[in-house]
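Morning run. Coffee first, then this:
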Amino acid sequence: MRKILFIFLLVPFISLGQDKEIIELRNELNTVKENLNSHHKEFITGVVVSIVGGSVTIIGSITAAPALAIIGSITCLVGTGIIQMVWKKIYETKSKKI
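And here it is:
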């Protein structure tokens, strides 16, 4: 009889305590999703800027316009810098949690 009473008293305590953990896990999951979406948008921006800069550099080289080639090179470097900053953010947050 004591075992049954113990089970009836213990099971509600265990099941009620898990709701808070589930809510915390959902909040953490939503935060991670928001961060990944933000990183993805920044990464895509960096890729687009880098591709446009590379294209302008090629056009400037073909048409023998040095100013256009220099502007394209700088734009390409800016795009690469954006990509590197995004990856740095991702790896810094991973290393902090480990």
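The CA atoms of residues 8 and 22 lie 23 Å apart. Good start to the day.
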